[in-house]
């Protein structure tokens, strides 16, 4: 897995890519959530950087992630923690967790991979979902007060 500078636009982009791929595939609703929630603007990453890093992330995954079934890649907690560790600023961690939650909520359900990414981010960064707030909430949006998480997925 390639290394990006701590707290860089590339490191933040890779966290977004991780959230997008946590459920095993790119979903149109998750892609749409990027613009709907202004995620690139909020995280100060350009669409070109995000696009490049998503491609690099996919290339890296093909080389190092477990693939128990054809076309399916599993991300283990150690790899997730390694990727999340590139975000060290508490402000950036909070913004990144907000983006992860927005992406995971885009399709209206939370699967196991998404729950693990959220759980690992909360644990590694010492954050609670109640502390995830947006600085700018668009009129059609409401801030998240909670995310329904099946506790069985977090164990």
DSSP, total strands: 2
Query: How much helix is in the residues?
Result: 40-55%
Shape: globular
The major pleated sheet works out as: 2 strands, antiparallel
**How is the largest sheet built, in terms of strand order?**
1-2
Tell me the CATH topology.
TerB-like
Average pLDDT for all residues:
82
Distance between the termini: 26 Å
**What is the CATH first-level class name?**
Mainly Alpha
What is the correct CATH architecture?
A: Orthogonal Bundle
Number of helices: 7
Strand content: under 5%
Features:
155 residues; mainly alpha; TerB-like; two-stranded antiparallel sheet; 7 helices; 54% helix; disordered C terminus
Describe this structure in words.
This protein has 155 residues and is mainly α. The protein has one domain: TerB-like, CATH 1.10.3680. Helix content is 54%, strand content 5%. The chain has helices at 9-21, 28-36, 39-43, 47-64, 77-84, 90-105, 112-125; strands at residues 66-69, 72-74. The chain has a two-stranded antiparallel sheet with strand order 1-2. Strand 1 (66-69) and strand 2 form a beta hairpin.
Write the layout of secondary structure elements.
Blueprint: H1 9-21, H2 28-36, H3 39-43, H4 47-64, E1 66-69, E2 72-74, H5 77-84, H6 90-105, H7 112-125
Antiparallel strand pairs: 1-2
Helix pairs in contact: 1-4, 1-6, 2-6, 5-7, 6-7
């Amino acid at each position: 897995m390639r290394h990006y500078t701590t707290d860089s636009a590339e490191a933040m982009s890779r966290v977004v890519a991780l959230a997008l791929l946590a459920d095993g595939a790119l979903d149109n609703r998750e892609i749409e959530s990027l613009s709907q929630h202004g995620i690139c603007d909020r995280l100060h990453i350009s669409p070109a950087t995000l696009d490049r890093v998503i491609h690099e992330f996919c290339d890296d995954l093909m080389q190092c992630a477990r693939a128990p079934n054809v076309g399916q890649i599993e991300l283990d907690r150690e790899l997730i923690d390694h990727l999340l560790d590139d975000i060290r600023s508490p402000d950036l961690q909070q913004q990144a967790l907000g983006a992860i939650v927005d992406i995971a909520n885009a399709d209206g359900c939370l699967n196991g991979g998404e729950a693990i990414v959220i759980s690992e981010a909360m644990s590694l960064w010492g954050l609670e979902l109640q502390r995830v707030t947006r600085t700018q909430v668009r009129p059609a949006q409401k801030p998240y007060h909670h995310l329904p998480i099946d506790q069985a997925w977090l164990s």
